[in-house]
Amino acid sequence: MDDDASEPPSKNDDDPGPEHHARFDLIDPGQHLTESQRAEIRTLVEGALAIIGRPGEVRARIVGDEEMAEAHARYKDVPGTTDVLTFDLSEQDPLDIDLLVCAHEAERRAEELDHPATHELVLYIIHGVLHCVGFDDASPADAEAMHREEDRILSAVGLGPVFSSGREGEP
What we know:
The chain is an alpha/beta fold.
């Protein structure tokens, strides 16, 4: 056994530390995901948040179609389900973001695009965070810039261009 075990581990100089990027919490009360899927999403989103580099907290709650449709109608006055709803509670830094993310929508899109639903869910989470750090998708030019940034981040964490892969007619 190492006699120096009581000393803290040495810091990796390449990692700026958690104080330089948002903390991530994944909540799945309906157990839409397996533990290994939740672990994969946590790892990928934490890597993406390190790339985004803003301090604070991001909480993503995984829901099904029914809960998402209720929230979509309540908060956006739009009937039916959607992929992600973003609630930016921050006034500037640090980030304080709540996300509702639809597991059923991710499953449908993932099947259409032939990739794992976890990749769709990570895309939805990053999309929501990017809305809170200044990106928008209201105009075609803004949407193209936002999706390019999503793909850049998702490629950097090892997923590749999840948004643009297989989505006809979308940037």
